[in-house]
Amino acid sequence: MDKLIIEGPTRLSGDVRIDGAKNAALPIMVACLLSEGKSVIKGVPQLSDVYTMCKILRVVGAKVNFSDGTLEISPGAYTGNTAAYSYVSTMRASICILGPLLVRQLYAKVSLPGGCIIGPRPINIHTKGLSALGADIKVEHGYLIAKTRGLKGNTVYLGGTFGSSVLATANVMMAATLAKGKTIIEYAACEPEIVDLAEFLIKMGAKIKGHRTHTIEIEGVKRLRGATHKIIPDRIEAATYMIAACATKGDITVRGANINHLGALIDILTEAGAVITKKPNSAIRVRASRRLNTIGLATLPYPGFPTDLQAQLMALMAVSNGIAIITEKIYPERFMHVGELNRMGAQISLEGDSAIIRGVKNLSGAEVMASDLRASAALVIGGLIAKGKTTISRIYHLDRGYKDMEKKLSLLGAKIKRVKS
Ligand code: EPU
Predict the structure, then answer these.
(1) Which CATH architecture has domain 3-19+233-419?
(2) Those residues with Cβ within 8 angstroms of residue 229's Cβ, 6 or more apart along the chain or in another chain
């Protein structure tokens, strides 16, 4: 297992280029199963989650070729219809294969995801939505077995206890493209990754309206064709570097990001004292010449502040001026990074779904352990801020969502290296 070693503190400066969005690529890869021809997906990040999805698609008979960030996917003759536990347990996004398999083959068997380090990950909204379209779904031996005689459009409400669900919206939207008649998804997620998926499906011939809102209308069609598409930039990757720049009192330019997807973060960082400027050609300059002020916030579905940035922002607040309260409204148990940041000298306590952060002037390097993808990114930011050596183990979590992070940070001036343990 690889480790990252960071010698801090660092002041980040220079340019960083953003890759395509993992969370847009994964459902779009699955959507290729709906077509009758080859699709070409460009700008796909070379990440372990993408390779896992390639394996899942091959198991169900697709021909997949991935080179230089371009994926070619042809559904092919189905050779199987199972997303096995070994894949789903490492990557919960696998659940969104359920809708496409069901509508194409009238049968799908997908492992239940089970527990997760960021808290419970139920799938009741997925099953509610697909059942409303005519799926008969039961659980046997840890697998969801879904059958149908043919999906039919319906009006489905996809809200849950914590708001809309991104991948349940993806699942139902994909299934509805080939279902008979009209589907209306109420309380749909409207994250940029859902919009990107809808745009791809439309290129394939799907009839979809309202996909930038919470009500999506899909008129089922008989067949879809293969399409060519470029994945949107990864807003979470871009935001992670922007937060790292602020935490290290740096001055960086993030290239290739979409500033329109970063509104909530830009608002928070600006209020905390950073200077953020839109530059030509999709570049964003981020400067923090002094220690920032603390800002309180709650994570919310898009366009609110994303849960996938909560940990990274907490690392920044840990060294900001004042006290901040961050409330996690999507995954109320997503706080595994708190104990590790505290080992580096942060002063963070937990009260239910909120973290109370008393900003300190410095962190100190320590041996810490990554627990999930975004928590890992928070520890990297901690390591960049901290005085001395930080060693982060279990960075396979980081490799699921950040391409070449240590290379990109090295180019920004960080002293960071990957070692085999
Ligand atoms: N929920 C339910 N029932 C369901 C589905 C979800 O109660 O059937 C709850 C969840 O427990 C959570 C809330 O609804 O409280 C929102 O979860 P959502 O379904 O939107 O999450 P997801 O679609 O499984 C995607 C991202 C996550 C990101 C969340 C929230 C992908 C591949 N994953 O997951 O990304 O945190 O949306 O924005 O798109 C990450 O990249 O690190 C990551 C975890």
Answers:
(1) Alpha-beta prism (3.65)
(2) 28, 39, 40, 41, 42, 199, 200, 203
CA 92 to ligand 1 centroid distance, Å: 9
Cβ–Cβ contacts within 10 Å for residue 349, how many? 11
Q: pLDDT digit string (tens) for 283-316?
A: 999 999 999 999 999 999 999 999 999 999 999 9
Ligand 1 in contact with 16 (CB < 6 A)?
A: no
Per CATH, 3-19+233-419 and 22-227 having the same topology is answered: yes
> What is the pairing mode between strands 367-369 and 415-420?
unpaired
Cβ–ligand 1 contact at 308 (below 6 Å): yes
Atom of ligand 1 nearest to the CA of 126: 8
Q: pTM, whole model, 2 decimals?
A: 0.97
Give the Å distance between the CA of 355 and the centre of ligand 1. 20
Domains of the chain: which residue ranges? 3-19+233-419, 22-227
Region 22-227: CATH code: 3.65.10.10
For the stretch 95-106, pLDDT in tens is: 999 999 999 999
